[in-house]
Specification:
heterodimer, A: 6-stranded parallel sheet, B: 692 residues, alpha+beta, 10-stranded mixed sheet, 6-stranded antiparallel sheet, 26% strand
Chain lengths: 406, 692
């Protein structure tokens, strides 16, 4: 009913979820009277070992007067959702085992909620996959969400399976809702920004490319040190490879582990990364970007076609030289790359699309959540945790394991 | 333990944060474990307000009082110090809102469907014909050619539609593109009739004033989840702009027949598929003046459909398909030469109900194929094709001639469409033997045990002795390393001279020839028989099926990951998967998750693995030699010799140490490369396809 109290919940399961939903949380607070809630999985608390993202979440919750609900099972999340209505957003929901917590919430959520999942990166499982994604997770990805917010039309999202296409709503990247950080960064900036995503399937599915990347990175830093140049290394928020593996870094390397929204990318002279969404972020920020690809050329970088590819140390140094002497050549390539992508990249248009979705979703679902016809079977929710049923990953990979609780 | 703040207020904390109560933790423990990490207040002092409360009214960009009442939830706030971009200057949040019409008169009035008002309106004609309002009123020529309606393209396109709950239909419409805002605004209505009064289409509340910009979400509460739905767009002056018929709404996601649509999907977008499949089925359903009668003239169910929609199914069958109940669970009408016999918990597909083309090809009946869907969510999961002519396989829908038109013959062939959607029973883990006999073997067996670990072999021997009871077991050990130490250990397990050794790679057929008993169990020492009835269950299958050459059961792979025991469905028989074109066309095989696809079933497979299989010695005697691990070859040879390989999910055993299921094995070579042999094999085994 119009005017009925509604809630917009955001499911936080992976650490990168916090940054993906951040813009939507503030947009919801600004444009609607809906209550805001976070459904935070126990798994998230474990994953966020450095407690960086819990702090971010707390700040967001405090600023938007949101409630935080921690859940260990779908039944616990159901208890929070029961009797309410509105929207549920997830930044990572699919039939992959890694997304199980979120998928179970979506499966059991009362129908008084519209369930929405977000494409959380340029390359994203179920939306646009690299060959390494396919090798690791298969092609047949599906969502429990009723609406899937994609960055581009279905024709460009080559991994969105036919059965899921009617769920697509094209929004563009939600991170474009965030104000680009400008001015001085929270920590000193100089030289280039190198992003590592060593945990990514891309760096292991088609071979072990991690040592190759790190080897070249160290050599590059040594060359930069000869010119007294600093290099900033940014670990992937979820992977944290260099920290988890206690890798000692050269003296001229500065670590920047701040959330991406706290980083003024424009303050860096250039950026380098293996194929990852951060490449897209850096391109949008307008700094010259070098796309690292393994020297053997095995890694699939086809979704980034048109950007400046660098592989060997010589490539890195040549790229750094080009950044100094003819940066416009690289930036022109990046402009062409952006034009070729059939996605909304005007932040205002992204704002409009998300705002319309949220407002329409809050207004479009009618009925009293207390009506029994609106409730699913709570027993179904609790059955996930009673240990009597086999819990099955819908993922195709044979190496996905099924947990059985005593 | 972390100290609490001195001024921690547990009562306030529990009241302020409702998840504390749900967590089962005390407020103190909750604060220590979670609250402090989230920066939660310990006592309510200094609580921060929302950004809306912090933004003074003068900072708001538009006047809230100018908003329509229905938009009261929209909060036009801007310029708060938040980390997102400002609201676009020309963006009005109210422009995206479709407005449910509150006035009862706005919902529309009942539509009486008659010859007069239907003529010239293809949607009404289709409805009229579908529910057989008047067999003589409208001519029975073919329906008007298919035309793309406004519901299939443009701003009023239904991007997606699905059921939420049992009978609530949720629509997502595209809405206008921003540059089309200001285009003509339309009202969306939906109508549906009660089965008892199909000629009166009642408006479903609420009607909706469509939005000038999309997307639009709207819920209609249906009167009946299976009856046709008429959608209508009208202009502001009340004139009808367009109508479209959803003849079978249950094909939509969440609907009872969505599995059927999923299995038949041919188009890139499921919504396009819904409209095209609906059109095809509608035309078949209403037929033409020269059409044959619909094939199915009667339905019988082994038991009442145990599903919340059972009553609606019965009403729908009566109203739309004229399948009147003729007895408690049987129903029929005069036309149609075939009976559809359904297992309990199954509903007929729309495809079989509308079909006018069933042909048994001279055989006495057609069994399956059928679809398996999750009982709770109705999500389609599997398509199962049972073996042709297999009457003994319980739980399979069957089409057979009605008594008056009984035909006879023997050459079976599969039905061209799915006959029914079977709702999946809950899957139990560690179910032991389910309906297996609760006694031990009544005759001796020869057990061929692969020994990799002496301790595990000891467990296997003990389990087999428990299974055999007084019947006795001949122990034959395949030894990878035939050392004196190992022999001594086996002496300790079985007793001196109470076992025999065979070499690791010995031919199975030769072993069988020298075995003392008529049944040979191949078992690896990784297999754990969780229930002593498992072997007896396999023996019962061989007894029940005289043509059975082998019998096995579902295996669960068990490993320890991060100090937790995890179980994956492992082996449960090998099934034809597809055709490999690596060289000449060859069949490939796979191991689907049979616990899910074929729950509580005993089914014929192409082959059983050697991990746990009971073999009939007499059958093995007819085969050429076969190696230790050549399970597919053994299975196919048995089939060629006139036997079958059966597997069951009524019993399970555990395979310790994990198991990687074989997927699309590229395949046995030799004689089975011949395409002609597929024709012998495929009708004799179950075929399984995962829908997603």
């Amino acid at each position: 009913m119009a005017g009925e109290a509604k809630t917009v919940f955001f499911v936080i399961n992976l650490v990168q979820d916090v940054n993906i939903v951040r813009g939507l949380v503030y947009l919801t607070a600004r444009e609607t009277e809906a209550s805001i809630g976070f459904l935070v999985s126990q798994a998230f608390l474990k994953r966020d070992r450095l407690k960086i993202w819990q702090g971010e979440l707390a700040a967001m919750a405090a600023a938007t007067d949101a409630t935080i609900h921690i859940f260990g099972s779908a039944a616990e999340a159901y208890a929070v959702l029961e009797g309410k209505s509105g929207l549920i957003f997830a930044a990572s929901e699919s039939n992959l085992e890694a997304h199980r917590e979120t998928a179970e919430i979506f499966q059991t959520a009362p129908p008084s909620f519209l369930r929405v999942t977000l494409q959380h990166g340029l390359e994203c499982i179920g939306f646009l996959q690299s060959r390494e994604h396919v090798l690791s997770h298969g092609r047949n990805i599906s969502f429990n969400a009723e609406v899937v917010c994609g960055w581009a039309p279905a024709s460009a999202l080559t991994s969105l399976t036919a059965s899921q296409r009617s769920k697509l709503y094209v929004t563009g990247p939600p991170t474009l809702l965030l104000k680009p950080r400008s001015g001085s960064d929270l920590q000193a900036q100089s030289g280039g920004l190198v992003c590592e995503n060593m945990h990514s399937v891309r760096l292991r599915a088609s071979g072990d490319h991690k040592s190759s990347f790190m080897g070249i990175f160290f050599d590059f830093c040594a060359e930069m040190e000869k010119r007294s140049e600093m290099v900033t290394l940014r670990p992937h928020p979820g992977g944290q490879y260099v920290l988890k593996n206690k890798i000692s870094l050269p003296g001229n390397v500065r670590l920047n582990n701040r959330p991406i929204s706290d980083i003024n990318m424009r303050g860096y002279r250039f950026g380098i990364s293996a194929p990852s969404t951060v490449v897209f972020d850096m391109v949008l920020a307008g700094i010259p970007v070098g796309l690292w690809r393994d020297p053997g050329g095995v890694m699939d970088a086809s979704n980034y076609d048109g950007l400046t590819e660098i592989s060997t140390l010589d490539d890195w140094l040549a790229f750094e030289r080009d950044v100094r002497v003819r940066p416009q050549m690289i930036l022109d390539r990046q402009d062409r790359f952006l034009r070729r992508l059939a996605m909304p990249i005007d932040p205002e248009e992204v704002y409009r699309r998300f705002a319309r979705l949220i407002i329409a979703g809050l207004h479009g679902l009618h009925g009293n959540p207390a009506d029994p016809r609106w409730t699913t079977n709570p027993a179904a929710a609790s059955s996930w945790s009673d240990g009597k049923r086999i819990k099955r990953p819908a993922a195709l990979s044979d190496d996905v394991l099924v947990e059985v609780r005593a | 333990m972390t100290e609490l703040p001195d001024d921690f207020d547990p009562a306030w904390y529990a009241q302020r944060y409702p998840d504390v109560g749900l967590s089962g933790l005390s407020p103190q423990d909750h604060y220590r474990r979670f609250g402090r990490h989230f920066g939660r207040s310990a006592n309510g002092k200094g609580e921060r307000r929302s950004i809306a409360e912090r933004v003074p009214p003068e900072a708001q960009r538009s006047d809230p009082s100018s908003l329509p009442v229905a938009n009261a939830a929209v909060r036009p706030v801007a310029s708060a110090p938040v980390p997102i971009i400002d609201r676009p200057a020309n963006f009005d949040p109210t422009e995206g809102l479709a407005l449910p019409l509150e006035a009862p008169a706005a919902h529309g009035t009942p539509l009486q469907v008659s010859t007069q008002n239907a003529e010239g309106d293809p949607a009404l004609v289709a409805y009229y014909r579908l529910v057989r309002l008047d067999e003589t009123g409208l001519q029975k020529e073919a329906l008007a050619p298919f035309a793309v309606s406004p519901f299939q393209s443009g701003p009023t396109r239904i991007e997606n539609a699905w059921f939420v709950g049992r009978s609530r239909l949720r629509l997502m419409l595209a809405g206008h593109a921003p540059d089309q805002v200001g285009a003509e605004q339309l009202v969306l209505r939906a109508y549906q009739a009660k089965p008892s009064k199909p000629g009166e289409l009642l408006p479903l509340e609420p009607a909706l004033q469509l939005a000038p910009a999309g997307p639009v979400f709207h819920d209609f509460e249906l009167l009946q989840s299976l009856m046709p739905v008429l959608l209508e767009l009208s202009r502001a002056d009340g004139t009808v702009f367009a109508r479209a018929l959803m003849p079978f709404p249950s094909l939509l996601p969440g609907g009872l027949h969505n599995a059927e649509l999923k299995a038949l999907q041919t188009q890139a977008n499921p919504m396009d598929d819904f409209w095209s499949a609906s059109d095809v089925m509608l035309r078949e359903a209403v037929g033409g003046s020269d059409s044959a009668p619909r094939s199915v003239g009667g339905i019988s169910q082994e038991a009442e459909l145990d599903h919340p929609l059972a009553d609606e199914v019965n009403e729908w069958l009566t109203t739309v398909f004229a399948l009147e109940p003729s007895e408690k669970i049987g129903r029929g009408h005069k036309s149609g030469g075939f009976d559809l016999i359904l297992p309990a918990n199954a509903v007929p597909t729309i495809g079989i109900l509308v079909s006018r083309q069933i042909d048994l090809g001279g055989s006495p009946f057609l069994a399956g194929p059928y679809l398996l869907a999750e009982a709770e969510s109705l999500r389609p999961r599997w398509s199962i094709v049972p073996p042709v002519g297999e009457e003994r396989w319980k739980g399979v829908p069957v089409v057979r001639p009605r008594p008056a038109t009984a035909a006879s013959g023997s050459a079976g062939r599969p039905a061209p469409i799915h006959l029914a959607i079977v709702l999946q029973p809950p899957v139990a883990i560690g179910c032991g033997s389910g309906s297996a006999p609760e006694n031990s073997l009544d005759r001796p067996i020869s057990a061929l045990i692969e020994v990799a670990d002496v301790a595990q072999a000891r467990t296997t021997v003990r389990a087999l002795r428990d299974s055999a009871g007084n019947a006795g077991v001949e122990f034959l050990f395949r030894l990878r390393d035939d050392s004196p130490d190992l022999r001594a250990a086996l002496d300790g397990i079985c007793g001196v001279a109470a076992w025999s050794a065979v070499s690791w790679d010995a031919d199975l057929i030769e072993i069988a020839q020298s075995a003392r008993h008529d049944f040979i169990l191949t078992i690896g020492d990784r297999v754990r028989l969780d229930h002593p009835d498992v072997v007896a269950t396999l023996m019962a299958i061989l007894d029940e099926h005289p043509d059975a050459g082998s019998a096995s059961c579902a295996l669960l792979g068990e490993t320890i990951v991060k100090r937790q025991t995890v179980v994956t469905p492992a082996s449960g028989g090998l099934f034809p998967a597809g055709v490999s074109f690596a060289t000449s066309p060859r069949l490939s095989f796979w191991e689907p998750d049979v616990l899910e696809a074929l729950p509580q079933q005993t089914f014929p497979v192409a082959a059983n693995t050697m991990h746990l299989t009971l073999l009939r010695k007499e059958a093995l005697a007819k085969l050429p030699g076969v190696g230790r691990a050549d399970d597919i070859r053994l299975g196919l040879d048995l089939i060629e010799a006139g036997y079958r390989n059966w597997c069951t999910t009524k019993a399970t055993a555990t395979l310790t140490g994990g198991y990687v299921r074989r997927d699309s094995i590229d395949p046995v070579g030799g004689a089975y490369a011949e395409i002609g042999r597929w024709q012998e094999l495929l009708p004799r085994v179950a075929l399984v396809r995962q829908l997603y």
